[in-house]
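pasting for ref
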Amino acid sequence: MKHSVKKKEWFWAYVFITPMVLGTLIFGIFPIIYSFKISLTKWDGIGESVYVGVQNFVNLLSNEKFKFEVKNTFVYTIFYVPVSLVLSVIVAELLNQKIRGKEVFRVIYFLPNIVMPAAAAMIWRFMLNSKYGIINIVLDFFHLPTPSWVADPKFIMAAVILVSVWSAIGYNAIILLAGLQGISRDIYEAAKIDGSGAFSTFIKITVPLVSPTLFFLLTMGVMNGLKAFDIIFMFVQNNAAGPLQDATRTMVYGIYESAFRYMRMGDASAEAIVLFVVIILVTAVQFKLQDKWVHYE
């Protein structure tokens, strides 16, 4: 009887996980394997493919555009991830306080997360317009510099990072808020009795106890940073070439351009494989270093 019940439980377990397994195989594992196959060929996506070995990878490493893409990808990630995490921790800590109407504030801070990145980018393009944008109007009111955010190569990456951080804070803050609410109030009471100040309590108690959540957000943030595309594409969509695009083009943008603008599927797949390896290596390093700062209960 027990064997029959256990067998039935296993049957339903496999039934429930089958859609996820099939989805991972069809939309995850298979595309990676197929991309690696295409990366070894010269193919326009329509005609016959020609095997060229590792030539696409050799061409990629000697391509000046690829160097811009790697540099911009890491610059974007290095600034976007820590800034969004720090601001998210501050917002989550504020939302965790006993203040009137905090539920409304939680909804307000989460709203950017439900806005499509393309729509958010278009809205911010108008707001960052050098002549009519609200951002420069406010800066001019306080007699501050009013740069050409979306037309100057020196500032467009900062504008992209600003929009990305704005979009990420809501999601990160809600996840962090869940982590903060899981910390027992008794710990804070004990720290208060011991004479610990607010800042000391935050650094020595809150941050270590919420470090698993921070690690999750850090890992996902780095992955998203390395795969940045949608907001950047909307910011430079009318600038197919030139300094403005060179200042913002990322590896995913290069993949898109090679595959769908120039129909060089082999080059695009080669860059996709390189990006895949980079993400795997960076994630592996993060997991290796987590023992030094992540504290699990």
